[in-house]
Amino acid sequence: MESRYLNRKEAATHISARGIPCAASTLAKYATIGGSPRYRVFGSRRVVYTVADLDAWIEARLSDPKSNTAA
Hints:
The protein has helices at 8-17, 24-33, 51-61; strands at residues 5-6, 40-42, 46-50. By secondary structure, the chain is α+β, with helices and mostly antiparallel strands. A three-stranded antiparallel sheet has the order 1-3-2.
């Protein structure tokens, strides 16, 4: 399977396109403080993400579907 690597700006755009507002600066902050999607470093400083890792991160942060606020 071929993987396409996204830079931080492209990753933020990918997340936002799925209805979850996200900025590249937010991903940079999460990479520093924790809670970031999995990423890899190319060379000495270029951070890249895979679509699969971004989608897994979104799913992990979402709650289970709910039918009311009491549950």
